[in-house]
Amino acid sequence: LIQQVVHGRRVWFPERISLLDPYFSRGRKPYAPLFGRTTGERANETLNLIRDLPFHVAIDTYVTSLIGTGRFGSRASQLQVHTVHHEVHTAFSTWAQIGL
């Protein structure tokens, strides 16, 4: 953890954030806090806020499953721009083996 003074108060921040199999549903959402944005866009806004902190927080993503692919999910490619991105390919299953 990193200790910083923010507005006169001591606040603890993580040194590293790992997103494990991040999943973002497709399509724009009308409800709060998205208000017409996609879940991937909202995640990208949050990462921009973290990136703009006055100290460094390492952020990485690990993709190990098929959940972010296909017609129901989104890989949120802009997420890969702000993180160290790791994709673990497995030969255990393909979309042809998964019933929708």
Could you please describe the fold and organization of this structure?
This protein is α/β, with parallel strands linked by helices and 100 residues long. It is 19% helix and 29% strand. The protein has helices spanning 39-51, 77-82; strands at 2-6, 9-13, 16-20, 24-25, 58-63, 73-74, 84-87. The chain has a 3-stranded parallel β-sheet with strand order 3-5-7. Strands 1-2 form a two-stranded antiparallel ribbon.
Task: List its traits.
2 helices; alpha/beta; 3-stranded parallel sheet; 100 residues; flat
The radius of gyration over CA amounts to: 16 Å
How do the strands of the widest beta sheet line up side by side? 3-5-7
Number of strand segments:
7
Helices and strands, in order, run as: EEEEHEEHE
What characterizes the major β-sheet?
Answer: 3 strands, parallel
The structural class is: alpha/beta
Shape: flat
What distance lies between the first and last C-alpha atoms, to the nearest angstrom? 42 Å
Low-pLDDT windows of residues: none
Our count of helices gives 2
Q: What is the mean predicted local confidence, pLDDT?
A: 79
- The percentage of residues in β strands lies in 25-35%
